[in-house]
Batch of 3 targets.
Target 1
Amino acid sequence: MNAIIFTGGRYRSPGFYRKYLEEHPADCIVAADAGAGMLMELGIVPRLLMGDLDSIRPEVLAWVREKDIPVYRHPTHKNETDTELAVTWCLEQGAGSIALLGALGTRFDHSLANVHLLYRMLCRVWRPWWRTSTTPCF
């Protein structure tokens, strides 16, 4: 399964993402909290919305309800970012490929967490070839 997660970060013009989705079709599209806003703008209904919903705009949440999109709501005070929760869900569903869109450019702490998350994903996927006694994967 190929998954794409729209995160709550900064986005370019919608045309960039339309073209990306045409060139990289996904079996599963997930919205991580405010990432649902870009999906609404694109007119794409995600499989689900994941997160604590602390940064989603009211009109986007109304669209989610109107489209009957399943919402996996988590507490605001948690140890994972909304993007990390979405990645974990995709991996549990058997995703072999996950693209993170909008993962950089707004909050520095979230951008840094997403870079670290990409490293952890790489370690999980490539562990049999990548892991050595001196290269730990978390």
Target 2
Amino acid sequence: MRTIFFRLAVLSLLALGAAPTSASAALTVSDVRIGAQPAFVRVVVDFTGGRVEINEADATDPAVRDGSARVDMRHNAIVAPARDRSAQGVRARVALASANRASVRLTFDRLRFKYVRVFALHGPERLVIDLYRSKPPNTTASEIRTGVNRCLTLRSVSRTGHRFRVRGTELNLFEGSFLLRVRDAPGRVVGRRIATERGGWGLDVSYSGVTTAQAGTVEAVAEVGEGRLAGVPRSGARGAHSLRAIPRGAARGCVLLVRLRRSTLRWPRRTPRSRPDAGATGNSRYAPAACAGTASRDVSSRGTPAGCR
């Protein structure tokens, strides 16, 4: 009897001793860092305790061209001491918005960015927010031609008249759906095409409204993996057409970018006008995540390379 009582007492003490450990493992915001990459500005929210799951993050203000963005992180008993950081022309403020919900508010110059990509990295735990610049890449290093796991690649871009012939490959995209866009030097969308392709593909995308020779960008974006990316119309949004949405929590944000040289983008004579891009203002709730890859890492040079997995 004494032996049984002693064992029960030991188990009770162990259970009581475990309680503080569990409580101390709450997911807690520890720091906010901001750094510049060739194609985007990266905001990293560091956490201690717990684990960051991307389906707990939500880009609640995806109209990034208006100069602001917001990402909410919902996690049971999350702890978010106020943090306020400014660097690279971006201000990031983290606070506890309500019980079990932390908010990351970003502000920057209007029209400076076109997409916001949100994803998680582990070991250590981080919530990563990438702000993609609206203006064309100015170096080869700023281009992103291949996605992680090769879910999308851009092999070549050539201009004929008022259109570009874009060639690439697709691998395991949801329904093979992706979006091609052409942007001018200020970052305005001047052409687009929604596509559903499998394997190798070659597509023409027309553009209009360009009166002088200038640099530009050809982009490809698609929904795949885990994460969020704002700035492209989803299913049901005006101009979304057949581009279907993936369930909440199932998209990872990536972007493919190919720069156009200064003399490449121009408007030839006697060409038909193309339809405007309904998603150019970035007012849709979410954007499909482009499967993309780049050798860039988070601002601490730790963890997994940016891109879809």
Target 3
Amino acid sequence: MAEYGNDSIIPGFDEERGDHLNIFLERAETERSIVVHLGDRLDTYNTDYFERAMGMVLAAGYTKIVFACAELGFVSASGMATFSKMWKILHEKGGTMAFAEVQPRVADIFEILGLTGFFPFRASIDKALEEVAREPAKPVALKSMNFTCPGCGRKLTATKAGKFICSSCRTRILLSAEGLARAC
């Protein structure tokens, strides 16, 4: 992945570098669209840098973002939270985002956190660009389901049914659409 040259797309973008996170920007042909190639890892140590970098992308007027993740090997919970913040900001601005070429290990993290139905995932950058080029759907108010971990009793929240792992005791949980949780 190329590591420099982003200043030609967004002036001043390359003035700061993140530890163990490479970001390479690529212009897209459709208006207000950009491809953000991510490499290495997005974790607690570099999420502040990532948030500042994405703030620059938004400030430059890009509201249709594809995150190309072919070289991204890990995303922590704080990285996932940053993606969720980006989604919220983009939807407030009438924009959208999609993920392309996500590695299986990273896809598993999205799935464990119940976010695979929340974000669009596409096999290629071209398919992800097609996704963000469409008119974005109206923002949807998500309903939260509160449940208790069957392993440790911790109170947890999810936005949809699915498989989860408790962040406290690492119990695998299957949450039904009715909000019933059981160990699996």
